[in-house]
């Protein structure tokens, strides 16, 4: 598959910073803390939103966010992505029509995402056209995946204060990213799949964050039929998973998990072990 050709900058920012704190014994200790910085997204030089982000893979975050919001749909029409940390901006230039952009920007909803995310009127569009495959998932695969994920979360291990998301094929982690908010992390991975023109029908999406409506919708838009979380779910997240046909696995840690939707797709091959 040919990769899209467009001008781009690779400008990952430092993810942690060393600072001195005072411990409970009154002694100075050097610790790592997670960095947080604003990144204002522009589409054809029009400001769209300012995201508070860790700064990992900002190009993919910008593209994934714009795609998930329905502002862009064709990666081949993207002409350039310009990241400039001097002014904390990400500018996406596309030849794709942006007609109706002003109206979409007027319909904004503040979401339940960490760091307070926003979605626009076009975010819910096209959900009735999503047709996800029903894919079987082995209990042993969930256990192996959770074990393999222990090798990731580097920023969380060093500094805390971040969420992590991963795109996986069975128990293999294909890509993993951390950010201040889980919505940023999922947008970054959505941007990665968008650039690679990769289908999600044989993938599993993992997140450390809770499964809200926003998370379920974004994973569905990536075409991924299985969503696994270390955290809990919301009522609307569950209702949308049922509507969209996503296998929803929550509270997954160690050898424990709960299947809230899609239990018929689960193969409990280690139920008695």
UniProtKB/TrEMBL annotation:
Biological process, per Gene Ontology: Mo-molybdopterin cofactor biosynthetic process
Gene Ontology MF annotations: sulfur carrier activity; sulfurtransferase activity
Keywords, comma-separated and alphabetical: Cytoplasm, Molybdenum cofactor biosynthesis, Transferase
Gene3D superfamilies reported in the protein's UniProt record: 3.10.20.10, Cytidine Deaminase, domain 2 (3.40.140.10)
Any single GO CC term annotated in Swiss-Prot or TrEMBL for this entry: cytoplasm
Protein's name according to its UniProt entry: Sulfur carrier protein FdhD
Catalytic site positions: 114 (cysteine persulfide intermediate)
Short name of one Pfam family: FdhD-NarQ
Organism: Ferrimonas aestuarii
InterPro entries in alphabetical order: Cytidine_deaminase-like (IPR016193), FdhD (IPR003786)
Family the entry assigns: Belongs to the FdhD family.
Subcellular location: Cytoplasm
Keyword Glycoprotein part of the UniProt annotation: no
């Amino acid at each position: 598959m040919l990769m899209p050709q467009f001008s781009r900058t690779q400008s990952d920012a430092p993810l942690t910073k060393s600072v001195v704190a005072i411990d409970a014994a009154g002694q100075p200790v050097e610790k790592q803390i997670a960095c947080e910085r604003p990144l204002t997204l522009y589409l054809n030089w029009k400001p769209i939103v300012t995201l508070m982000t860790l700064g990992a893979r900002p190009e993919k975050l910008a593209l994934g966010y714009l795609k998930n919001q329905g502002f862009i749909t064709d990666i081949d029409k993207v002409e350039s992505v310009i990241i400039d940390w001097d002014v904390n901006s990400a500018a996406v230039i596309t030849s794709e029509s942006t007609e109706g952009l002003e109206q979409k920007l007027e319909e904004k909803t503040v979401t339940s995402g960490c760091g307070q995310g926003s979605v626009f009127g076009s975010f819910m569009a096209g959900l009735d056209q999503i047709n996800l495959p029903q894919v079987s998932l082995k209990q042993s695969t969930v256990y192996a995946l959770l074990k393999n994920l222990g090798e990731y979360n580097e920023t969380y291990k060093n500094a805390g204060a971040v969420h992590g998301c991963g795109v996986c094929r069975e128990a293999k982690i294909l890509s993993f990213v951390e950010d201040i908010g889980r919505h940023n992390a999922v947008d970054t991975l959505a941007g990665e799949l968008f650039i690679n023109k990769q289908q999600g029908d044989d993938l599993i999406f993992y997140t450390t964050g809770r499964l809200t409506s926003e998370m379920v919708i974004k994973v569905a838009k990536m075409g991924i039929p299985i969503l696994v979380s270390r955290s809990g779910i919301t009522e609307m997240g569950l209702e949308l998973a049922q509507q969209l046909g996503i296998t929803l696995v929550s509270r997954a840690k160690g050898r424990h998990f709960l299947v809230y939707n899609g239990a018929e797709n689960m193969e409990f091959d280690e139920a008695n072990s």
